[in-house]
Structures are given as structure tokens and as C-alpha cells.
């Protein structure tokens, strides 16, 4: 009887679930999302690119290139300029796409969920 009960607990705890509620102390096994496409390229001179897509519709692509800029003392410095995008399905079922780039001026992202202006002060 105890062996049957333990076997049932073991089987039940191994069942994949999608609704995990850690706030109520539930522990559950969640099946990892599978990657259905993945590509990458790295050049010895520095440029790179990669992209992937998962079975749940998440996509990402990015490329980077070296760029020579002048620093604060007007000395040449090499930086990596990155451009990319990622997409996912939001809680309302809409596909959200974020485009971004990063260079010597910092990281910059654009998309429907990214705030565009400074918050107003009262």
C-alpha cells in the first residue's frame, strides 16, 4: 500500500504543468521549451550574428560589428555595435516585438511596451 502511494506521488510530481504557483508553495516540473531553429556565425575580425526560434513562438536575432570611435580624450577606441530584435506572445495573446541597438551611446530599445518619454513630475 505504501509502495503504491509513493509510486503515485512520484508519477504525479513528474507530470509537466504550465501553471506553477510558487506563492502558495507548490513545486512542479515544467517541461523546458524546445528550440526549433538556431543559427550563429562568428568572424575572427569581430562581427557576429545569431538567431533562434522556440516552439512557443519566441524569436530573437542579433548581429554585432566593431566600430572605431573616439573616447573623451580623442583617442581611438573600438566598440561593438549591436543590433537586434526579439518577439514573444504577451499575456493578451498579441505578438510583442522589441527592436534594440547598443553602441557607444548606450542601450536603446523600442517597442509597444517600452516607455518613450520621461515620467512627468507633479
TrEMBL record:
Region (Disordered) residue spans: 36-56
InterPro entries (alphabetical): CHIT_BIND_RR_consensus, Cuticle_Struct_Prot, Insect_cuticle
GO cellular component terms attached to this protein's record: chitin-based extracellular matrix
Coiled coil: none
GO MF term set: structural constituent of chitin-based larval cuticle
Source organism superkingdom: Eukaryota
Transmembrane parts of this sequence: none
Key words of the record: Cuticle, Signal
Protein's UniProt name: Larval cuticle protein 1
Originating species: Parnassius mnemosyne (clouded apollo)
Lineage: Eukaryota, Metazoa, Ecdysozoa, Arthropoda, Hexapoda
